[in-house]
Amino acid sequence: MTMSTEAGNLYVIAAPSGAGKSSLVKALMAQDPQLELSVSHTTRAPRGQEQHGREYFFVPHDEFDRMVANNAFVEWAHVHSNRYGTSRQAIQDKISSGADIILEIDFQGALQIKQLFPKAVTVFILPPSWPELEARLRHRGEDSEDVIALRLKNAATEMAQAKNFDFVIINDSFERALGDLQAIVRTHRLTDAAQRRNRSDTFAALRL
Ligand code: 5GP
Question: pTM of the entire structure?
Answer without folding.
Answer: 0.93
